[in-house]
Design brief:
- The complex is a heterodimer of chains A (275) and B (307).
- Chain A is mainly α and 275 residues long.
- Chain A has helices spanning 2-8, 12-31, 63-99, 101-116, 119-130, 134-161, 164-171, 176-184, 189-212, 224-233, 240-272.
- Chain A is built from eleven helices and no strands.
- In chain A, helix 3 (63-99) packs antiparallel against helix 4 (101-116), helix 3 packs parallel to helix 6 (134-161) and helix 6 runs antiparallel to helix 9.
- The longest helix of chain A is centred in the first third of the chain and has 37 residues, at 63-99.
- The termini of chain A are close together.
- The radius of gyration of chain B is 24 Å and the shape is flat.
- Classes of the chains: A mainly alpha (275), B mainly alpha (307).
- At the A-B interface, helix 5, helix 9, helix 10 and helix 11 of A face helix 1, helix 5, helix 6, helix 10 and helix 11 of B.
Amino acid sequence: MTATNAMTSLPRAPMAVLSVIVLACLFGPFIMPYTAEQMDLLDTYAAPSLAHPLGTDALGRDVLARLLAAGRISLAVGLAATLASSFIGISYGALAGYRGGWTDQAMMRFVDVVYALPFLFFVIVLMVVIGRHMWLIFIAIAAVEWLTMARIVRGQTVSLKQMEFIQAARALGLPPWRILLRHIVPNLRSPVIVFATLSIPQAIMIESFLSFLGLGVQEPMTSWGSMIKSGVVDMEFAPWLLVSPAVILAVTLICLTVLGDAIRDALDKRASAGL
Amino acid sequence: MLRMIFQRLIIAVPTLFVIITLAFAMIKVAPGGPFDGERALSKAVQDNLNRQYKLDRPLLEQYAHYVGGVARGDFGPSFQYRDQSVTGLIRQGLPASILVGGIALLCALGAGLGLGVWAAQRAGRLADRLVMAAAATGLALPSFVIAPLLALVFGVALRWVPVAGWGGPGNLILPVIALAVPYAASIARLTRAGVVEVSSAPFVRTARGKNISQTRLLWRHILPRALMPVVSYLGPAAAGILTGSVVIETIFQIPGIGRYFVQGALNRDFTLVMGVVIVYAALIIVFNLIVDIALQWLDPRTRGQST
Protein backbone atom coordinates (compact mmCIF):
# COMPACT_ATOMS: atom_id res chain seq x y z
CA MET A 1 0.00 0.00 0.00
CA THR A 2 2.76 2.41 0.94
CA ALA A 3 4.41 1.50 -2.34
CA THR A 4 1.42 2.37 -4.49
CA ASN A 5 0.91 5.64 -2.62
CA ALA A 6 4.52 6.50 -3.31
CA MET A 7 4.07 5.80 -7.01
CA THR A 8 1.43 8.50 -7.35
CA SER A 9 3.64 11.23 -5.88
CA LEU A 10 6.62 10.70 -8.19
CA PRO A 11 8.26 13.63 -9.96
CA ARG A 12 6.52 14.18 -13.29
CA ALA A 13 9.40 15.22 -15.56
CA PRO A 14 11.66 12.14 -15.31
CA MET A 15 8.55 9.94 -15.37
CA ALA A 16 7.44 11.54 -18.66
CA VAL A 17 10.89 11.40 -20.29
CA LEU A 18 11.32 7.80 -19.26
CA SER A 19 7.88 6.85 -20.61
CA VAL A 20 8.73 8.44 -23.96
CA ILE A 21 12.00 6.51 -24.18
CA VAL A 22 10.43 3.20 -23.18
CA LEU A 23 7.45 3.60 -25.53
CA ALA A 24 9.69 4.67 -28.41
CA CYS A 25 11.90 1.62 -27.91
CA LEU A 26 8.90 -0.69 -27.64
CA PHE A 27 6.82 0.57 -30.57
CA GLY A 28 9.24 2.72 -32.57
CA PRO A 29 10.77 -0.15 -34.57
CA PHE A 30 7.29 -0.99 -35.97
CA ILE A 31 6.81 2.41 -37.59
CA MET A 32 10.40 3.11 -38.63
CA PRO A 33 11.01 2.98 -42.40
CA TYR A 34 14.32 1.19 -41.78
CA THR A 35 15.22 -1.85 -39.69
CA ALA A 36 18.21 -1.85 -37.37
CA GLU A 37 20.13 -4.26 -39.62
CA GLN A 38 19.24 -2.72 -42.98
CA MET A 39 22.49 -1.60 -44.64
CA ASP A 40 23.00 0.97 -47.38
CA LEU A 41 26.61 0.90 -48.49
CA LEU A 42 26.09 3.92 -50.77
CA ASP A 43 25.05 6.08 -47.82
CA THR A 44 27.59 5.44 -45.05
CA TYR A 45 28.45 8.01 -42.39
CA ALA A 46 25.62 10.27 -43.53
CA ALA A 47 25.19 13.29 -41.27
CA PRO A 48 21.77 13.75 -39.65
CA SER A 49 19.17 14.73 -42.28
CA LEU A 50 15.45 14.43 -42.90
CA ALA A 51 15.79 10.89 -44.27
CA HIS A 52 18.01 9.82 -41.36
CA PRO A 53 17.25 12.10 -38.37
CA LEU A 54 20.30 10.83 -36.44
CA GLY A 55 22.51 9.96 -39.43
CA THR A 56 23.88 6.60 -40.53
CA ASP A 57 26.80 4.51 -39.33
CA ALA A 58 29.81 2.83 -41.00
CA LEU A 59 27.57 0.35 -42.83
CA GLY A 60 24.90 2.89 -43.75
CA ARG A 61 22.49 1.68 -41.08
CA ASP A 62 20.03 4.21 -39.70
CA VAL A 63 21.23 5.34 -36.26
CA LEU A 64 17.74 6.08 -34.93
CA ALA A 65 16.52 2.59 -35.83
CA ARG A 66 19.58 1.07 -34.18
CA LEU A 67 19.18 3.30 -31.13
CA LEU A 68 15.63 2.02 -30.58
CA ALA A 69 16.55 -1.61 -31.14
CA ALA A 70 19.53 -1.19 -28.79
CA GLY A 71 17.25 0.42 -26.21
CA ARG A 72 15.04 -2.66 -26.17
CA ILE A 73 18.06 -4.78 -25.28
CA SER A 74 19.51 -2.37 -22.71
CA LEU A 75 16.15 -1.91 -20.95
CA ALA A 76 15.31 -5.63 -21.10
CA VAL A 77 18.68 -6.59 -19.65
CA GLY A 78 18.28 -3.98 -16.92
CA LEU A 79 14.83 -5.24 -15.94
CA ALA A 80 15.56 -8.96 -16.20
CA ALA A 81 18.84 -8.73 -14.33
CA THR A 82 17.19 -6.72 -11.58
CA LEU A 83 14.40 -9.30 -11.24
CA ALA A 84 16.93 -12.13 -11.11
CA SER A 85 19.19 -10.40 -8.58
CA SER A 86 16.20 -9.40 -6.42
CA PHE A 87 15.00 -13.00 -6.39
CA ILE A 88 18.41 -14.33 -5.35
CA GLY A 89 18.99 -11.53 -2.84
CA ILE A 90 15.57 -11.84 -1.19
CA SER A 91 15.74 -15.64 -0.85
CA TYR A 92 19.30 -15.55 0.46
CA GLY A 93 18.84 -12.61 2.83
CA ALA A 94 15.50 -13.78 4.23
CA LEU A 95 16.85 -17.27 4.82
CA ALA A 96 20.02 -16.01 6.55
CA GLY A 97 18.09 -13.53 8.69
CA TYR A 98 15.37 -16.00 9.66
CA ARG A 99 17.64 -18.93 10.49
CA GLY A 100 20.06 -16.77 12.50
CA GLY A 101 22.90 -18.40 14.43
CA TRP A 102 25.85 -19.86 12.63
CA THR A 103 23.94 -20.33 9.33
CA ASP A 104 23.43 -16.57 9.27
CA GLN A 105 27.06 -15.97 10.25
CA ALA A 106 28.41 -18.25 7.53
CA MET A 107 26.07 -16.92 4.83
CA MET A 108 26.80 -13.26 5.59
CA ARG A 109 30.55 -13.85 5.94
CA PHE A 110 30.40 -15.28 2.42
CA VAL A 111 28.63 -12.14 1.22
CA ASP A 112 31.31 -10.01 2.91
CA VAL A 113 34.11 -11.91 1.19
CA VAL A 114 32.48 -11.68 -2.24
CA TYR A 115 31.70 -8.02 -1.61
CA ALA A 116 35.36 -7.28 -1.01
CA LEU A 117 36.39 -8.85 -4.32
CA PRO A 118 36.66 -6.80 -7.47
CA PHE A 119 33.66 -8.76 -8.63
CA LEU A 120 33.11 -7.02 -11.91
CA PHE A 121 36.53 -8.26 -12.96
CA PHE A 122 35.49 -11.79 -12.22
CA VAL A 123 32.39 -11.29 -14.31
CA ILE A 124 34.57 -10.20 -17.19
CA VAL A 125 36.83 -13.20 -16.69
CA LEU A 126 33.76 -15.42 -16.59
CA MET A 127 32.61 -14.02 -19.91
CA VAL A 128 36.06 -14.58 -21.38
CA VAL A 129 36.13 -18.16 -20.19
CA ILE A 130 32.59 -19.29 -20.98
CA GLY A 131 31.88 -17.14 -24.00
CA ARG A 132 29.55 -14.28 -24.80
CA HIS A 133 25.85 -15.09 -24.69
CA MET A 134 22.84 -12.94 -23.89
CA TRP A 135 21.85 -15.09 -20.91
CA LEU A 136 25.36 -14.88 -19.53
CA ILE A 137 25.01 -11.12 -19.30
CA PHE A 138 21.88 -11.55 -17.15
CA ILE A 139 23.70 -13.99 -14.88
CA ALA A 140 26.79 -11.84 -14.69
CA ILE A 141 24.85 -8.74 -13.67
CA ALA A 142 22.62 -10.63 -11.25
CA ALA A 143 25.74 -12.15 -9.69
CA VAL A 144 27.07 -8.67 -8.88
CA GLU A 145 23.81 -7.03 -7.85
CA TRP A 146 22.30 -9.56 -5.44
CA LEU A 147 24.78 -8.90 -2.64
CA THR A 148 23.41 -5.55 -1.48
CA MET A 149 19.84 -6.83 -1.75
CA ALA A 150 20.76 -9.82 0.43
CA ARG A 151 22.26 -7.52 3.08
CA ILE A 152 19.25 -5.21 3.15
CA VAL A 153 16.74 -8.06 3.28
CA ARG A 154 18.68 -9.87 6.00
CA GLY A 155 18.75 -6.77 8.20
CA GLN A 156 15.00 -6.26 7.77
CA THR A 157 14.26 -9.93 8.41
CA VAL A 158 16.24 -9.92 11.65
CA SER A 159 14.20 -7.00 12.99
CA LEU A 160 10.89 -8.40 11.67
CA LYS A 161 11.60 -11.67 13.44
CA GLN A 162 11.33 -9.91 16.80
CA MET A 163 7.84 -8.57 16.06
CA GLU A 164 4.82 -9.98 17.85
CA PHE A 165 2.97 -11.18 14.76
CA ILE A 166 5.88 -13.37 13.70
CA GLN A 167 6.17 -14.79 17.21
CA ALA A 168 2.43 -15.39 17.13
CA ALA A 169 2.77 -17.21 13.82
CA ARG A 170 5.49 -19.34 15.31
CA ALA A 171 3.49 -20.04 18.44
CA LEU A 172 0.66 -21.23 16.18
CA GLY A 173 3.08 -23.84 14.89
CA LEU A 174 3.26 -22.63 11.28
CA PRO A 175 6.10 -24.23 9.29
CA PRO A 176 9.11 -21.91 8.73
CA TRP A 177 8.67 -21.74 4.92
CA ARG A 178 5.11 -20.53 5.42
CA ILE A 179 6.18 -17.86 7.91
CA LEU A 180 8.88 -16.73 5.49
CA LEU A 181 6.64 -16.67 2.42
CA ARG A 182 3.39 -15.35 3.88
CA HIS A 183 4.53 -13.17 6.76
CA ILE A 184 8.10 -12.01 6.29
CA VAL A 185 8.61 -11.53 2.55
CA PRO A 186 5.42 -9.45 2.02
CA ASN A 187 6.59 -7.09 4.75
CA LEU A 188 9.90 -6.56 3.01
CA ARG A 189 8.32 -4.84 0.02
CA SER A 190 9.26 -1.23 0.82
CA PRO A 191 13.03 -1.70 1.04
CA VAL A 192 12.91 -4.24 -1.78
CA ILE A 193 11.08 -1.87 -4.12
CA VAL A 194 13.44 0.97 -3.26
CA PHE A 195 16.55 -1.05 -3.83
CA ALA A 196 15.23 -2.78 -6.95
CA THR A 197 14.39 0.59 -8.54
CA LEU A 198 17.86 1.84 -7.78
CA SER A 199 19.48 -1.29 -9.19
CA ILE A 200 17.81 -1.03 -12.62
CA PRO A 201 20.12 1.83 -13.68
CA GLN A 202 23.02 -0.08 -12.11
CA ALA A 203 22.21 -3.14 -14.20
CA ILE A 204 21.87 -1.08 -17.38
CA MET A 205 25.19 0.52 -16.53
CA ILE A 206 26.96 -2.84 -16.10
CA GLU A 207 25.49 -4.16 -19.35
CA SER A 208 26.64 -1.04 -21.21
CA PHE A 209 30.03 -1.32 -19.53
CA LEU A 210 30.46 -4.92 -20.72
CA SER A 211 29.16 -4.09 -24.20
CA PHE A 212 31.42 -1.07 -24.33
CA LEU A 213 34.43 -3.29 -23.70
CA GLY A 214 33.23 -5.62 -26.46
CA LEU A 215 32.32 -8.36 -23.99
CA GLY A 216 28.57 -7.88 -23.85
CA VAL A 217 25.95 -7.85 -26.58
CA GLN A 218 27.42 -9.05 -29.89
CA GLU A 219 26.73 -8.07 -33.51
CA PRO A 220 24.28 -8.02 -35.23
CA MET A 221 22.47 -7.26 -31.98
CA THR A 222 23.37 -4.00 -30.37
CA SER A 223 22.97 -2.13 -27.11
CA TRP A 224 23.64 1.47 -26.11
CA GLY A 225 27.01 0.45 -24.70
CA SER A 226 28.16 -1.17 -27.93
CA MET A 227 26.92 1.84 -29.93
CA ILE A 228 29.01 4.14 -27.72
CA LYS A 229 31.96 1.83 -28.30
CA SER A 230 31.75 2.15 -32.08
CA GLY A 231 30.93 5.86 -31.76
CA VAL A 232 34.24 6.45 -29.95
CA VAL A 233 36.14 4.96 -32.90
CA ASP A 234 34.64 7.34 -35.47
CA MET A 235 34.26 10.28 -33.10
CA GLU A 236 36.49 12.70 -35.02
CA PHE A 237 34.53 12.73 -38.29
CA ALA A 238 31.11 11.30 -37.37
CA PRO A 239 30.33 12.63 -33.88
CA TRP A 240 26.60 11.83 -34.24
CA LEU A 241 27.46 8.15 -33.85
CA LEU A 242 28.71 8.87 -30.35
CA VAL A 243 26.42 11.67 -29.21
CA SER A 244 23.02 10.00 -29.66
CA PRO A 245 23.67 6.74 -27.75
CA ALA A 246 25.68 8.54 -25.04
CA VAL A 247 22.96 11.12 -24.52
CA ILE A 248 20.06 8.67 -24.47
CA LEU A 249 21.93 6.37 -22.06
CA ALA A 250 22.77 9.33 -19.84
CA VAL A 251 19.19 10.62 -19.85
CA THR A 252 17.77 7.17 -19.09
CA LEU A 253 20.20 6.60 -16.22
CA ILE A 254 19.54 10.04 -14.72
CA CYS A 255 15.74 9.59 -14.91
CA LEU A 256 15.89 6.13 -13.35
CA THR A 257 18.16 7.34 -10.55
CA VAL A 258 15.99 10.37 -9.80
CA LEU A 259 12.90 8.15 -9.73
CA GLY A 260 14.62 5.65 -7.44
CA ASP A 261 15.63 8.44 -5.07
CA ALA A 262 12.09 9.83 -5.11
CA ILE A 263 10.60 6.43 -4.31
CA ARG A 264 13.09 5.99 -1.49
CA ASP A 265 12.31 9.40 -0.01
CA ALA A 266 8.55 8.80 -0.28
CA LEU A 267 8.74 5.41 1.44
CA ASP A 268 11.27 6.62 4.02
CA LYS A 269 9.05 9.50 5.04
CA ARG A 270 6.21 7.11 5.69
CA ALA A 271 8.56 4.75 7.48
CA SER A 272 9.84 7.48 9.81
CA ALA A 273 6.29 8.75 10.36
CA GLY A 274 5.62 5.61 12.33
CA LEU A 275 5.07 2.79 9.87
CA MET B 1 44.86 -0.98 16.99
CA LEU B 2 47.82 -3.26 16.17
CA ARG B 3 45.65 -6.23 16.92
CA MET B 4 42.98 -4.97 14.51
CA ILE B 5 45.55 -4.56 11.75
CA PHE B 6 46.88 -8.01 12.49
CA GLN B 7 43.39 -9.55 12.38
CA ARG B 8 42.66 -7.87 9.05
CA LEU B 9 45.91 -9.16 7.59
CA ILE B 10 45.02 -12.67 8.71
CA ILE B 11 41.69 -12.38 6.84
CA ALA B 12 43.37 -10.83 3.80
CA VAL B 13 45.65 -13.81 3.20
CA PRO B 14 42.88 -16.42 2.69
CA THR B 15 40.89 -13.91 0.60
CA LEU B 16 43.82 -13.53 -1.76
CA PHE B 17 44.29 -17.28 -1.72
CA VAL B 18 40.63 -17.79 -2.72
CA ILE B 19 41.10 -15.32 -5.57
CA ILE B 20 44.23 -17.07 -6.81
CA THR B 21 42.53 -20.48 -6.63
CA LEU B 22 39.45 -19.15 -8.45
CA ALA B 23 41.73 -17.60 -11.04
CA PHE B 24 43.52 -20.87 -11.61
CA ALA B 25 40.29 -22.87 -11.75
CA MET B 26 38.85 -20.52 -14.35
CA ILE B 27 41.91 -20.81 -16.55
CA LYS B 28 41.58 -24.59 -16.43
CA VAL B 29 37.81 -24.73 -16.97
CA ALA B 30 38.05 -22.54 -20.06
CA PRO B 31 37.24 -24.43 -23.24
CA GLY B 32 39.97 -24.25 -25.84
CA GLY B 33 43.64 -23.74 -25.15
CA PRO B 34 45.55 -20.51 -25.56
CA PHE B 35 47.17 -21.74 -28.77
CA ASP B 36 43.99 -22.50 -30.72
CA GLY B 37 44.55 -20.25 -33.67
CA GLU B 38 43.05 -19.96 -37.12
CA ARG B 39 45.29 -22.78 -38.31
CA ALA B 40 45.55 -26.08 -36.48
CA LEU B 41 49.11 -26.60 -35.21
CA SER B 42 50.85 -29.87 -35.83
CA LYS B 43 50.91 -32.35 -32.96
CA ALA B 44 54.64 -31.89 -32.36
CA VAL B 45 54.41 -28.10 -32.16
CA GLN B 46 51.40 -28.34 -29.86
CA ASP B 47 53.26 -30.73 -27.55
CA ASN B 48 56.31 -28.51 -27.52
CA LEU B 49 54.26 -25.45 -26.62
CA ASN B 50 52.47 -27.36 -23.90
CA ARG B 51 55.77 -28.55 -22.48
CA GLN B 52 57.22 -25.07 -22.55
CA TYR B 53 54.27 -23.62 -20.61
CA LYS B 54 54.17 -26.71 -18.34
CA LEU B 55 50.64 -27.54 -19.56
CA ASP B 56 51.53 -31.26 -19.87
CA ARG B 57 52.03 -31.76 -16.11
CA PRO B 58 49.35 -33.06 -13.72
CA LEU B 59 46.79 -30.45 -12.65
CA LEU B 60 47.90 -30.38 -9.02
CA GLU B 61 51.48 -29.75 -10.01
CA GLN B 62 50.42 -26.91 -12.31
CA TYR B 63 48.40 -25.42 -9.44
CA ALA B 64 51.31 -25.64 -6.99
CA HIS B 65 53.56 -24.08 -9.60
CA TYR B 66 51.11 -21.20 -10.22
CA VAL B 67 50.56 -20.47 -6.51
CA GLY B 68 54.28 -20.69 -5.82
CA GLY B 69 54.94 -18.32 -8.69
CA VAL B 70 52.33 -15.78 -7.58
CA ALA B 71 53.73 -15.86 -4.04
CA ARG B 72 57.09 -14.80 -5.51
CA GLY B 73 55.45 -12.19 -7.71
CA ASP B 74 55.68 -14.29 -10.87
CA PHE B 75 52.41 -14.60 -12.76
CA GLY B 76 53.81 -16.85 -15.47
CA PRO B 77 54.32 -16.18 -19.17
CA SER B 78 51.79 -14.25 -21.23
CA PHE B 79 50.01 -16.45 -23.74
CA GLN B 80 49.68 -13.67 -26.29
CA TYR B 81 52.76 -11.52 -25.97
CA ARG B 82 55.08 -14.47 -26.51
CA ASP B 83 58.36 -13.07 -25.24
CA GLN B 84 57.06 -11.27 -22.16
CA SER B 85 56.11 -12.35 -18.68
CA VAL B 86 52.81 -11.19 -17.16
CA THR B 87 54.78 -9.70 -14.28
CA GLY B 88 56.82 -7.65 -16.74
CA LEU B 89 53.69 -6.37 -18.52
CA ILE B 90 52.06 -5.43 -15.20
CA ARG B 91 55.21 -3.67 -14.04
CA GLN B 92 55.17 -1.65 -17.28
CA GLY B 93 51.54 -0.67 -16.89
CA LEU B 94 51.18 -0.11 -13.14
CA PRO B 95 52.83 3.36 -12.87
CA ALA B 96 50.47 4.95 -15.42
CA SER B 97 47.42 3.31 -13.83
CA ILE B 98 48.37 4.36 -10.31
CA LEU B 99 49.15 7.90 -11.48
CA VAL B 100 45.78 8.39 -13.18
CA GLY B 101 43.79 6.57 -10.51
CA GLY B 102 45.56 8.28 -7.62
CA ILE B 103 45.14 11.78 -9.03
CA ALA B 104 41.48 11.01 -9.81
CA LEU B 105 40.86 9.84 -6.25
CA LEU B 106 42.51 12.95 -4.81
CA CYS B 107 40.54 15.22 -7.15
CA ALA B 108 37.28 13.44 -6.29
CA LEU B 109 38.06 13.84 -2.59
CA GLY B 110 39.01 17.52 -2.91
CA ALA B 111 36.09 18.53 -5.10
CA GLY B 112 33.59 16.35 -3.21
CA LEU B 113 34.59 17.63 0.23
CA GLY B 114 34.71 21.25 -0.88
CA LEU B 115 31.35 21.18 -2.63
CA GLY B 116 29.76 19.12 0.13
CA VAL B 117 30.77 21.51 2.92
CA TRP B 118 29.91 24.52 0.79
CA ALA B 119 26.43 23.13 0.06
CA ALA B 120 25.86 22.09 3.69
CA GLN B 121 26.55 25.62 4.92
CA ARG B 122 23.87 26.87 2.53
CA ALA B 123 21.47 23.99 3.18
CA GLY B 124 18.07 24.55 1.57
CA ARG B 125 19.15 27.54 -0.48
CA LEU B 126 19.57 27.72 -4.25
CA ALA B 127 23.34 27.03 -4.22
CA ASP B 128 22.75 23.88 -2.19
CA ARG B 129 20.04 22.64 -4.51
CA LEU B 130 22.16 23.31 -7.59
CA VAL B 131 25.16 21.44 -6.18
CA MET B 132 22.99 18.50 -5.16
CA ALA B 133 21.29 18.35 -8.56
CA ALA B 134 24.71 18.37 -10.23
CA ALA B 135 25.83 15.62 -7.86
CA ALA B 136 22.78 13.50 -8.67
CA THR B 137 23.57 13.88 -12.38
CA GLY B 138 27.25 13.08 -11.92
CA LEU B 139 26.36 10.06 -9.84
CA ALA B 140 24.08 8.62 -12.51
CA LEU B 141 26.64 8.89 -15.30
CA PRO B 142 29.26 6.18 -15.66
CA SER B 143 32.81 7.07 -16.69
CA PHE B 144 32.42 5.51 -20.13
CA VAL B 145 29.64 7.98 -20.98
CA ILE B 146 31.41 11.04 -19.55
CA ALA B 147 34.80 10.22 -21.05
CA PRO B 148 33.92 10.09 -24.78
CA LEU B 149 31.67 13.15 -24.48
CA LEU B 150 34.48 15.11 -22.78
CA ALA B 151 36.91 13.96 -25.47
CA LEU B 152 34.45 15.02 -28.17
CA VAL B 153 33.83 18.49 -26.76
CA PHE B 154 37.26 19.49 -25.40
CA GLY B 155 39.44 17.36 -27.63
CA VAL B 156 37.79 17.16 -31.05
CA ALA B 157 35.61 20.28 -31.17
CA LEU B 158 37.44 22.87 -29.03
CA ARG B 159 40.95 21.36 -29.32
CA TRP B 160 41.92 22.57 -25.83
CA VAL B 161 43.49 19.29 -24.76
CA PRO B 162 44.80 16.23 -26.61
CA VAL B 163 42.04 13.71 -27.41
CA ALA B 164 44.09 10.70 -26.40
CA GLY B 165 47.63 9.56 -25.84
CA TRP B 166 50.20 9.58 -23.10
CA GLY B 167 53.23 11.62 -22.18
CA GLY B 168 52.48 15.22 -21.23
CA PRO B 169 50.48 16.53 -18.28
CA GLY B 170 47.80 17.65 -20.76
CA ASN B 171 47.05 13.98 -21.39
CA LEU B 172 46.03 13.58 -17.76
CA ILE B 173 43.28 16.20 -17.67
CA LEU B 174 40.39 14.45 -19.42
CA PRO B 175 40.98 10.93 -17.99
CA VAL B 176 41.21 12.28 -14.45
CA ILE B 177 38.01 14.35 -14.81
CA ALA B 178 36.08 11.48 -16.38
CA LEU B 179 37.21 9.09 -13.63
CA ALA B 180 36.69 11.49 -10.75
CA VAL B 181 33.22 12.92 -11.53
CA PRO B 182 31.00 10.05 -10.24
CA TYR B 183 33.04 9.70 -7.05
CA ALA B 184 33.27 13.45 -6.45
CA ALA B 185 29.45 13.48 -6.72
CA SER B 186 29.09 10.68 -4.17
CA ILE B 187 31.55 12.27 -1.77
CA ALA B 188 29.79 15.64 -2.07
CA ARG B 189 26.46 14.04 -1.14
CA LEU B 190 27.92 12.11 1.81
CA THR B 191 29.81 15.18 3.06
CA ARG B 192 26.77 17.42 2.84
CA ALA B 193 24.57 14.90 4.66
CA GLY B 194 27.22 14.38 7.35
CA VAL B 195 27.85 18.09 7.96
CA VAL B 196 24.14 18.93 8.07
CA GLU B 197 23.47 16.12 10.52
CA VAL B 198 26.38 16.79 12.85
CA SER B 199 25.74 20.57 12.84
CA SER B 200 22.58 20.04 14.87
CA ALA B 201 24.20 17.66 17.37
CA PRO B 202 24.29 18.80 21.03
CA PHE B 203 28.09 18.90 21.21
CA VAL B 204 28.21 21.33 18.29
CA ARG B 205 25.64 23.54 20.00
CA THR B 206 27.81 23.51 23.12
CA ALA B 207 30.87 24.44 21.06
CA ARG B 208 28.90 27.28 19.43
CA GLY B 209 27.84 28.45 22.88
CA LYS B 210 31.51 28.71 23.88
CA ASN B 211 31.83 31.21 21.06
CA ILE B 212 34.68 29.60 19.15
CA SER B 213 35.46 30.68 15.58
CA GLN B 214 33.52 29.24 12.65
CA THR B 215 36.69 27.78 11.11
CA ARG B 216 37.70 26.02 14.29
CA LEU B 217 34.16 24.75 14.80
CA LEU B 218 34.13 23.28 11.30
CA TRP B 219 37.59 21.73 11.34
CA ARG B 220 37.85 20.56 14.95
CA HIS B 221 34.29 19.62 15.82
CA ILE B 222 32.07 19.06 12.81
CA LEU B 223 34.31 17.57 10.13
CA PRO B 224 35.95 14.72 12.06
CA ARG B 225 32.51 13.33 12.95
CA ALA B 226 30.84 14.23 9.65
CA LEU B 227 33.50 12.60 7.52
CA MET B 228 33.16 9.06 8.88
CA PRO B 229 30.81 7.97 6.05
CA VAL B 230 33.12 9.61 3.50
CA VAL B 231 36.12 7.70 4.82
CA SER B 232 34.28 4.38 4.75
CA TYR B 233 33.13 5.20 1.21
CA LEU B 234 36.76 5.52 0.10
CA GLY B 235 37.18 1.74 -0.01
CA PRO B 236 34.40 1.15 -2.56
CA ALA B 237 35.39 4.37 -4.35
CA ALA B 238 38.92 3.13 -4.88
CA ALA B 239 37.57 -0.17 -6.20
CA GLY B 240 35.22 1.73 -8.51
CA ILE B 241 37.99 3.97 -9.80
CA LEU B 242 40.01 0.85 -10.61
CA THR B 243 37.06 -0.58 -12.56
CA GLY B 244 36.50 2.73 -14.30
CA SER B 245 40.16 3.01 -15.18
CA VAL B 246 39.80 -0.07 -17.38
CA VAL B 247 37.44 1.90 -19.63
CA ILE B 248 39.30 5.20 -19.31
CA GLU B 249 42.62 3.65 -20.28
CA THR B 250 40.99 2.09 -23.34
CA ILE B 251 39.34 5.32 -24.48
CA PHE B 252 42.31 7.61 -23.90
CA GLN B 253 44.93 5.04 -24.93
CA ILE B 254 46.80 5.19 -21.63
CA PRO B 255 49.42 2.42 -21.35
CA GLY B 256 48.17 1.12 -17.99
CA ILE B 257 47.22 -2.34 -16.73
CA GLY B 258 43.53 -1.73 -17.45
CA ARG B 259 44.26 -1.72 -21.16
CA TYR B 260 46.20 -4.98 -20.87
CA PHE B 261 43.23 -6.38 -19.00
CA VAL B 262 40.80 -5.54 -21.81
CA GLN B 263 43.16 -6.73 -24.53
CA GLY B 264 43.86 -9.90 -22.57
CA ALA B 265 40.13 -10.48 -22.12
CA LEU B 266 39.47 -10.09 -25.83
CA ASN B 267 42.50 -12.24 -26.79
CA ARG B 268 41.76 -14.99 -24.26
CA ASP B 269 45.15 -14.35 -22.71
CA PHE B 270 44.23 -16.06 -19.44
CA THR B 271 47.44 -15.63 -17.46
CA LEU B 272 47.51 -11.91 -18.20
CA VAL B 273 43.85 -11.41 -17.21
CA MET B 274 44.33 -13.42 -14.02
CA GLY B 275 47.51 -11.58 -13.12
CA VAL B 276 45.77 -8.22 -13.47
CA VAL B 277 42.75 -9.41 -11.43
CA ILE B 278 45.03 -10.60 -8.62
CA VAL B 279 46.90 -7.28 -8.60
CA TYR B 280 43.59 -5.37 -8.53
CA ALA B 281 42.30 -7.54 -5.68
CA ALA B 282 45.49 -7.00 -3.68
CA LEU B 283 45.26 -3.23 -4.24
CA ILE B 284 41.64 -3.17 -3.08
CA ILE B 285 42.39 -5.27 0.02
CA VAL B 286 45.29 -3.02 1.00
CA PHE B 287 43.18 0.09 0.44
CA ASN B 288 40.32 -1.26 2.54
CA LEU B 289 42.80 -1.99 5.32
CA ILE B 290 44.04 1.61 5.24
CA VAL B 291 40.44 2.85 5.33
CA ASP B 292 39.64 0.69 8.37
CA ILE B 293 42.68 1.99 10.20
CA ALA B 294 41.72 5.58 9.36
CA LEU B 295 38.17 4.99 10.64
CA GLN B 296 39.47 3.63 13.95
CA TRP B 297 41.77 6.58 14.32
CA LEU B 298 39.04 9.13 13.47
CA ASP B 299 36.54 7.75 15.97
CA PRO B 300 37.57 8.83 19.47
CA ARG B 301 35.42 6.08 20.96
CA THR B 302 37.69 3.38 19.54
CA ARG B 303 40.96 5.29 19.32
CA GLY B 304 42.43 4.29 22.65
CA GLN B 305 41.08 0.76 22.77
CA SER B 306 43.14 -2.20 21.75
CA THR B 307 40.26 -4.20 20.30
